Amino acid sequence: MSFPWAEKYAPKHPFMRWIDQRLPLPRLAYGAVGGGYPVPRNLNYFWNFGVLAGLALALQIVTGIILAMHYQAGDATAFNSVEHIMRDVNQGWFLRYAHANGASMFFIVTYIHIFRGLYYGSYKAPREMVWMLGLVIFLLMMATAFMGYVLPWGQMSFWGAKVITGLFGAIPLVGDPIQHWLLGGYAPDQPTLTRFFSLHYLLPFVIAGVIILHIWALHIPGSGNPTGVDVKSPQDTLPFHPYYTAKDGFGVGIFFLVFALLVFFMPNAFGHADNYIAANPLSTPAEIVPEWYFWPFYAILRSFTADFILPAKLWGVLAMFSSILLLFFLPWLDKSPVRSGSYRPTFKIFFGILIADVLVLGYCGGSRPEEPYLMISQLATAYYFIHFLVVLPLLSMFEKTRPLPNSISESVLHGEEAEAAPIGVTPATAA
Amino acid sequence: MAAVEHSEHMDAHGEDGMRRRDFLNIGAVAFPAAGAVALLYPLINQMNPSADILALAQIDVDISHIQPGQAIKTIWRKQPVFLRNLTPHEIQEANAVDISTLRDPQTLAERTKPGKMNWLITMGVCTHLGCVPLGAGEGEPRGPYGGYFCPCHGSMYDTAARIRQGPAPLNLQVPDYEFTSPTAVRIG
Known about the structure:
Mean pLDDT of chain A: 92
Strand order of the largest sheet of chain A: 1-2
Low-confidence stretches of chain B: 1-13
Helix content of chain A: 55-70%
CATH superfamily of the largest domain in chain B: Rieske [2Fe-2S] iron-sulphur domain
CATH architecture of the largest domain in chain B: 3-layer Sandwich
Number of domains of chain B: 2
CATH superfamily of the largest domain in chain A: Cytochrome Bc1 Complex, Chain C
Structural class of chain B: alpha+beta
Largest sheet of chain A: 2 strands, antiparallel
Strand content of chain B: 15-25%
Oligomer: heterodimer
CATH topology of the largest domain in chain B: Rieske Iron-sulfur Protein
Number of helices of chain B: 4
CATH class of the largest domain in chain A: Mainly Alpha
Helix content of chain B: 25-40%
CATH class of the largest domain in chain B: Mainly Beta
Mean pLDDT of chain B: 87
Number of helices of chain A: 17
Distance between the termini of chain B: 75 Å
Radius of gyration of chain A: 24 Å
Number of strands of chain B: 9
Shape of chain A: globular
């Protein structure tokens, strides 16, 4: 895998040799996350977030399997079984809060991971497949999170299910049959709950499978790095273990600190009070908002308020889905040969605007659908699409980029060779 | 520069042969390991009986309507309990047995409350493999010893619900109970 100077797996103990000849699993681990995977030596902490996302998935699977031991999917039992978990099951409150806030943690680290990729050009050749598989994971995460939110069968669960499946109802001609097919009825009910539970249990394992492909595709060119310059020689890399296991370990510690803060001190901060009211098909809550991680997309959905050739409802749905599908084409929209935003001064400005834009969309998506939020989300939605469809292609044609360092090790050393040379060793004359 | 040299010197030749870096490494791995072990507690403990199950662990039973020779079945911790009002003849039969011949030697007095020897309260769970023995319901066979008979593997209990014949190793278990009044029993 990757570079010719990668350390070869050479088990010394006879038992490990015996294993290696029969099931080379330690060899696989050594090459993937051990000393046998050379990684650019200049990775910053933004490169922690892939590992953190994997960790979040593992935590969700563990807590989720446990919750499934106590949860009863059924229109008469679901809500009460969640209360049973909160009150009666030993440490059930902890496991449920860990699962609910674990979803938020998963999205937080995933969003940072995605924006890391957007800034450092991780989607560019030769890593297009890594990027697209990541988007597939993101879509699967959204589906899983949505269905998981329906399971407690509170008011937000019920009306969320109704509204989100209603999106498919916007499709011309086949919309209604598709919505009824998704729900297994005319409104969310017992069939909806049992199928969502089944799929909510299944999809995380599908995500785990796509993650394997994501990592496999990544390990062919190897990890990118903050300069965007390709690895050229052994001086540019360090073995994953112990250097990046240690660096990731530090990030994992911070992750758990934030996670513990949420679970133990503000477990319902990301939740909605209405979801502690049992589902009532006859009464819609005064204010329906999805979970925070869907807010930017919800704002895009709601920003289409007037019919224009097609009905406004359909425009909203199309725009919302396109906002993600468009990212699949990003490697071909941004053709700038310079990967890292650090060497693209104009790109950097627009990247800052994009982040502000998505935050504004998120804020509007979480607010009531009234002025001035509608107007603001319309403008922000417009910029979102302009950024990817107009700004990036133009930038890749006209932007004057800064000179790139000759190599990763040169950028690390800033020309001060002595700084990195071991004590007593004369620095080589190069770079 | 002198300070740097000094610390390097300490690193390489610490007093007990352990370097600062070794200590940090061990600490950095041991601390999360301890946390992970602590985290296992809720992950495992959640499978233990929950609070609503434990809340079923005490029941009150009215025994005023049980005539001598009759028995009732009730449920405690989702398991059957037999409450039997023994006839004087059955008490006599139980007391006539030489307890040294029993597999699980116990007298009837040891299995009942003082002065309430006619009230035989036992779990309805065969000590062999957990079937419900026959004999508490009206018309059910009570086996050759007049107590209970387990249809699964033929364990036979006498009128003190002691094992007399068959594969069961122990007498039917007597749960913790007390008489809250002459006609009421609290089990658990």
